[in-house]
Amino acid sequence: MQKSKKRNKGEIFFIIIILMSSTIISLKFFIKDSQPFGLNILEISSNSMLPIFKKGDFILIKKQQEYSVGDIITYEMEEDNKKYYITHRIIEKYGNEYITKGDANNRADPQRVNQNKIKGKVLFYK
Predict the structure, then answer these.
(1) In degrees rounded to 5, what are phi and psi of residue 88?
(2) C-alpha pair distances (Å), 19 with each of 23, 32, 61
(3) Cβ pair 34, 28 in contact under 8 A
(4) pTM > 0.85: yes or no
(5) Spatial contact of 43 and 56, defined as CB atoms under 8 Å apart
(6) Of 4, 23, 50, 59, which residue is most buried, by most CB within 10 angstroms?
(7) Which fold has domain 37-125?
(8) What are the residue boundaries of the structural domains of the chain, listed by start?
């Protein structure tokens, strides 16, 4: 009887997690640029952060008040009138600007990232 109660609690917890995840993902698809609970789910589009995560993995990010060296962040870039996101690690900090680098890359990114371009810090990936 005790095993049955423990299993039921575990099943209920699992169902709650699945429902919350489904709700967040659904909101992401129906509401452009939605950030339920301040969270955003993104898909990785390159292997620049190997071995941490690879192309096709999903990340969960959240905007922070401050970012530190070592944090993995997602920031917005604009090039040729196209906007896209980059997810790299902060390697240096200069006031409200940051130098970033993909873990699998040989050198740092060429541009500094201003804090107002940061969409969030990676909290979870899978």
Answers:
(1) -140, 170
(2) 6, 20, 19
(3) yes
(4) no
(5) yes
(6) 59
(7) Umud Fragment, subunit A (2.10.109)
(8) 1-34, 37-125
Give exposure, 13-30, as e/b (b: 16+ Cβ within 10 Å): eeeeeeeeeeebeeebee
Burial of 34 per CB tally in 10 Å (0-12, 13-18, 19+): middle
Query: Per this entry, what is the length of the chain?
Result: 126
d(CA 32, CA 53): 25
Whether the ω angle into residue 51 lies within 30 degrees of 0, i.e. cis, is: yes
